[in-house]
Design brief:
Nucleotidyltransferase, domain 5, 2 domains, globular
Length: 307
């Protein structure tokens, strides 16, 4: 969270797998109840409804404004950031992002969705919050994660932001993004999870919990039978090969370009492939995009203030 005059700038990365802010990461899961549920540790109440944050898994949907879920998750994300500074009331500018090639088409709609209540009151974890949403600023995914050092990049660089739902690819030449060389594919890490589930069932006639799959993808291992681990690692390695096949389809050349991998897919590349560390760099901070949105919003607001 950044401060500009009397306003708090809060960057939020509305991922399909995880919601991220500058200081927090939590699952993009939400369950709605008409009455207070039994377990209330992560409960948010708003407009007479009860929401358990982080419960379940929200399926991939290109249109994030089709229901209230991402709006309520946004309120939870803001509350988590305000809690860092012991605030319960604030004027807020939300800085968020959309997949590269979807930004121009969905920007206005997503902004209107997040700004539909310019004043909003809710309760999260038994603490009352009162927000004034002064503005919403939308930026392209992928670029945000490297925005703070983008101008230092020399030569041809390829930014691959591989999230849970999508893979965003952006070319940078001497620190400048190339408008005509950006791509968005529905090839996020959840596709790898689905492939592992299917292969595991075919080979063992057993189901495997997603939590185990996630542990292997993030760390490279888990405390499970070696034969089961081999199945998961094999499918993950194939997924990574497919990442590079798709990057080459978009013109990637490992001999002349530097690849910057960000998002959850970076973990998979690191854990399940061998790459040249001089040519492949990793943005390991899972909150990098959210921090980048804040960086871009603050710079833009300071520039506007000088006019």
């Amino acid at each position: 969270m950044k401060s500009f005059k009397e306003t708090k700038i809060i960057g939020i990365d509305h991922g399909y797998g995880n919601m991220k802010t500058a200081n927090h990461c939590f699952k993009t899961g939400i369950s709605t109840y008409g009455s207070e549920p039994l377990f209330t540790a992560d409960m948010l109440t708003f407009n007479g409804k009860y929401y358990l944050i982080g419960e379940g898994h929200k399926e991939f949907a290109p249109d994030k404004v089709k229901d209230e879920d991402y709006y309520v998750l946004t309120l939870a994300a803001i509350a988590k950031e305000l809690r860092v500074e012991n605030l319960t009331e604030a004027h807020v500018v939300i800085s968020a992002g959309l997949p590269l090639t979807w930004t121009s088409g969905q920007k206005a709609e997503f902004k209107a969705y997040l700004m539909k209540n310019t004043e909003v009151k809710f309760t999260y974890k038994k603490v009352d919050y009162h927000l004034y949403i002064d503005d919403v600023r939308i930026y392209p995914q992928g670029y945000a994660a490297i925005a703070s050092f983008a101008t230092t990049l020399k030569g041809v660089n390829l930014i691959a932001d591989i999230g849970n739902g999508t893979m965003n690819v952006l070319y940078m030449i001497n620190g400048k993004p190339q408008q005509g060389k950006m791509f968005t594919e529905k090839f996020g890490t959840y596709q790898c999870t689905l492939s592992i589930r299917e292969a595991f069932m075919q080979k063992t006639q057993r189901e495997i919990n997603d939590a185990i799959i996630d542990e292997v993808l993030i760390t490279g291992t888990a405390n499970i039978a070696p034969a089961d681990l081999k199945i998961i690692k094999g499918i993950a390695a194939e997924y990574v090969k497919d990442i590079f096949r798709r990057l080459r389809d978009h013109g990637y050349d490992e001999n002349t370009m530097t690849l910057y991998a960000t998002g959850g897919g970076g973990c998979l590349i690191k854990n399940f492939s061998k790459v040249n560390p001089d040519r492949v760099k990793f943005v390991d901070d899972i909150c990098a995009a959210a921090k980048g949105y804040e960086y871009l919003a603050e710079a833009q607001m300071k520039s506007e203030a000088k006019l």
